[in-house]
Design a protein that fits this description.
The protein has helices at 2-18, 41-48, 52-58, 70-79, 92-100, 113-119, 122-126, 151-156, 165-178, and strands spanning 32-37, 61-66, 86-88, 129-130, 133-134. With 198 residues, the chain is mainly α. It folds into 2 domains: 2-134, D-Maltodextrin-Binding Protein, domain 2 (3-Layer(aba) Sandwich), CATH 3.40.190; 145-187, no CATH class. A hairpin with a 2-residue loop joins strand 4 (129-130) and strand 5 (133-134).
Length: 198
């Protein structure tokens, strides 16, 4: 069963990550792979379109399910011994938690790391690596963290746009020193059921 899961997961991941369809394998035709994510119905419908050609070539039925309560639902299923085949994590920090809890499979047990390195910069692979093992592939990225600033006030103070994280931290310290009680960096709490990335 674990081998069948690995084969199905590999085929789905390759289709998802590379946009290619793997050849049909007689031992997996008729199987179902369930992918669980935090998206709503409309996003899931669009996401499911990625698998139409894959399903036609492999005979595998790909079922997409989603819930805004992704973390709780996926954890309860995993702890109960009935995990989804593939979890489409909304942030790599949560994926790392699941990996450390033993709920995920090291993908390098059936995907050559060199193939991944040919597709992704090492920094992207590093974000999916926990304790030396790779637990995910990227199929899309959403920008969730941007630094916004009031350009007129920024220019009037003579601040320069930081180019590195260290420069951003130094500028933050400079702004706070110039305006005691001010906070140069601010982050709002994530919505209920969501975790910050990282």
């Amino acid at each position: 069963m674990k081998r069948l899961f690995a084969t199905m997961a590999l085929l789905v991941i390759v289709a998802l990550a590379l946009g290619a369809c793997a050849p049909a394998a007689p031992d997996v035709a008729g199987a179902t792979v369930t992918i669980f994510n935090a998206a709503g119905d409309e996003q899931n419908s669009v996401f499911a379109e990625n698998f139409v050609a894959f399903e036609a070539e492999t005979g595998i039925d790909v079922v997409i399910e989603g819930s805004p309560d992704f973390e709780t639902v996926s954890r309860v299923r995993s702890e109960g011994g009935d995990p989804y085949d593939i979890l489409n994590f909304p942030q790599p920090g949560l994926m790392a938690d699941f990996a450390r809890d033993g709920f995920l499979v090291d993908l390098t047990s059936f995907i050559d790391l060199g193939d991944m390195q040919a597709q992704y910069a090492q920094s992207w692979i590093d974000m999916l690596t926990v304790d030396g093992k790779v637990y995910g592939v990227w199929h899309g990225v959403d920008v969730k963290s941007l630094v916004w600033y009031a350009k007129p006030a920024f220019d009037a103070a003579g601040y320069q746009i930081p180019q590195t994280w260290d420069e951003l931290l130094a500028l933050s310290d400079q702004i706070v020193a110039a305006r005691p009680g001010a906070s140069a960096l601010r982050a709002e709490a994530p919505p209920a059921g969501r975790r910050p990335t990282g």
